[in-house]
């Protein structure tokens, strides 16, 4: 199958109604979401706690498309199998989260998942230069991880360009996460990102009872990038 470098929108359920997560995932997909982004936070690597593998497993039957799990946890390795068992398609770990990133990425692939590596806004693109053979996805963060609804950090734009050059023809997705909305999306898409994570810009615009707002929000992002 040819590698899909077209623009994809991955709503982050961090901004969804936690009391109705299954219905929220179904609503977002019905309204045009390409991937579903699940933010796992441990209160240690980041100063917030969200949910773990049990919630991901419970959501799997409600997600027909790509289940994209963003791990903001340290350590990572002891939990890879649990997220793979939960049904993750992509598992992304932070390059800053441990000393043996190669081992982590290889373990993700060995567990049958696609492997992603995330970089915090203060981490240079070069930090992943020696990892390109081990990854299916690069995630330069456009906010410091831990919370939704933060302001987009502009320095991610030249970093995306640099990562795009480094990737060349390799089948590696470039995902961006944090503060993505119709005003910031075109900047990152033009720089070379193909997967745009958006939390508040999608789930903040509707509800399970009024899901058309999600569709309008995703259309606005796509149109801004066209
Ligand atoms: O990983 C994270 C935050 O750490 C994200 O996935 C957020 O959930 C994005 O939220 P918005 O900035 O789009 O509201
Ligand atoms: Fe995320």
Automatic annotation (TrEMBL):
Gene3D superfamilies in alphabetical order: Aldolase class I
Cellular component, GO annotation: cytoplasm
Domain of life, per lineage: Bacteria
GO molecular function, one term: metal ion binding
EC number: 5.1.3.1
Record keywords: Carbohydrate metabolism, Cobalt, Isomerase, Manganese, Metal-binding, Zinc
Binding-site residues, a divalent metal cation: 37, 39, 70, 177
Pfam families documented for this protein: Ribul_P_3_epim
Pathway it works in: Carbohydrate degradation
Enzyme kind, highest EC tier: isomerase
Binding site for substrate: 12, 70, 146-149, 177-179, 199-200
Keyword Mitochondrion listed: no
Cofactor: Mn(2+); a divalent metal cation; Co(2+); Fe(2+)
Cofactor info, note text: Binds 1 divalent metal cation per subunit.
Catalytic activity: D-ribulose 5-phosphate = D-xylulose 5-phosphate
Active site: 39 (proton acceptor), 177 (proton donor)
Entries under HAMAP family matching the protein: RPE (MF_02227)
Job description of the protein: Catalyzes the reversible epimerization of D-ribulose 5-phosphate to D-xylulose 5-phosphate.
Family: Belongs to the ribulose-phosphate 3-epimerase family.
Name of the protein in its database record: Ribulose-phosphate 3-epimerase
Lineage: Bacteria, Pseudomonadati, Pseudomonadota, Alphaproteobacteria, Rhodobacterales
